[in-house]
Design a protein that fits this description.
Layout: H1 8-17, H2 33-42, E1 45-52, H3 55-68, H4 74-81, H5 85-88, E2 95-101, E3 106-112, H6 117-126, E4 132-133, E5 138-142, E6 147-153, E7 156-160, H7 174-181, E8 186-191, H8 197-214, H9 223-245, E9 247-257, E10 262-271, H10 276-281, E11 301-308, H11 311-338, H12 346-369, E12 371-379, E13 386-392, H13 396-414, E14 422-428, E15 431-439, H14 445-450, E16 453-460, E17 464-469, H15 473-485, E18 495-500, H16 501-510, H17 516-531, E19 538-546, E20 549-556, H18 558-576
Antiparallel strand pairs: 1-2, 1-8, 2-3, 3-7, 4-5, 5-6, 6-7, 8-9, 9-10, 10-20, 11-12, 11-18, 12-13, 13-17, 14-15, 15-16, 16-17, 18-19, 19-20
Amino acid sequence: MIAPQPRFAPRLLMALATLATLTPFGRAQTATAEADTAESATGLKTVAVAGLSSRDELLKDLDFLGELGGRPGLSGVITFFSGGALDVLEEGRPIGVVLQTDGASFTPLGCLPVTDIDRVLEVAENFGFEPLALDDDTYEIELPDQTIFFKSAGEWVFVAQSAAALASAPADPTQTLNKLTETYDLGVTASVPNVPEMYRQIALEELRNGMEEGLVQEEEESDEDFQARRDLAESQIDQLADMIQGLDQVTIGWSIDSEGRRTFLDAIITGLPDSDIALAMSVYDRSTSGVSGFHRPEAAASMLTTGTTPPELLEKQAAQVDATVEMLRTQAEKGIEEADELPDDPAFREALHSATDDLIDAYGDMLRNGRIEMGGSLNLEGDGFDLIFGAYVTDPSKIESAFKKLAAAAETQAGDKWPGIEWGYADHAGVKLHGMSIPVPDEGQAREALGETLRVLMGVGDERVYLAAGPRGEEALKRAIDDSAGLENKEILPAEIIVSLGQVLAAAEKVSGDNPQAAAVIGMLVESLEEAPEGSDRLVMTTEAIENGVKVRYLIEGGVLEAIGKVAAQAAAMQQQGGGGF
């Protein structure tokens, strides 16, 4: 017999047995034949499925995380304090929970990979719980906070909060769970159509109530403006409600790749065929971009996003877009009039109004056009830096006009201190370049980071606007424009953001001298990342089109994990020594 262990162990047993009570949503991406049979036989619908890859994968991941945090052999510690509860679970098989509903309430059903139920009963007895046999394969166990029921069926032990709930157990949940655990260490997937209508309506009502609570008429806001803002908010809530009603599957999955020394989290959303949300996500179906050259994965930070809204959705959103644009215009006009810090010069404020109108017109045209195309990156490698950005604009001349009006207004106020703008000083590949050199104050970290002057460029093409900054900005901008021309037809991910922490922290270290504690932490991180394999210092976010939906992945590379682990281990060691950490 296994000796009784601390309270951690029975709590672990109860957690494994009643995991479903902690799972608010989920369902396998497609129901298995066994699940369909169970649903038809019991009248219950499967709302959620959560899956854990296996006991051995869990322990391997714990060892990896423990190693990063300076606590090797963490799985052994967890296994010891489980008091045998983990040993009951068979190796290489998933652990899961199925959440079902009868339309009024929810019934969780735990799925434990245990062939011999006697092993579960033995662990329960060792912790002082007396199993009560209800029949040959069903048992009741009274826990401190609740009663749970176990049933043995084939190679599984099912756990529920009532004996009746065990009747809905599938013959074999392996296939259903594997849909999650073949990709993820831990995954939850939800079928929104199976959520009872009354609960969906409650959720929507909460959204509306939240909108009402946050929608308060501001001081000096006219009744007309307030009503316009209310109407826009209500139309947005209505659109969101339509989107929610069109949801099909929502999946969240987390995986730790201990061999590749990285981890990622996926969020997957699909819509019902022909629904508004499926139509909205079709914006990502085939993605190309005219600014792909601005996306430099090797830079300190880089991004690229692209997509085209289908005409049917643009038509549905037309009234809301018009209302949004006019509300922005009203708020901008009010902000300019009420800004006490602006010069009390009617000509200056009129110039601001005119420039703002141009920018809002350009923004409205982009919304009505439905085409998204943006790319940019910041390179901090070596001496200096360069920042570049490019975007599709329906009418670039409006952006150019706005900046010329703003520059003219600023010049009237700055007088001799105005550094001046070199309008159209150069042309590159059909892009007209404007330049400006801004003096940087000789005190503070800005001078150390930027130098004596900050060179800023604006480029205007036939259907795109470009920006650049830094001593290498012009060279980087021209190269990105040239590279983009050769990549216009290349299919890309709808969205990707990459941050290389090595470059970012190395740059931060140069200006962290005034804060010794921050400098110490940054220095440790930089040193660790310098030792990491090339490319392993990145944080990556990607969006990928799938049928009727999208998959968004958040990835942390191994070098980042190891750097964080070293700092955490060092901080823990200093804390133990009484140093108080960083």
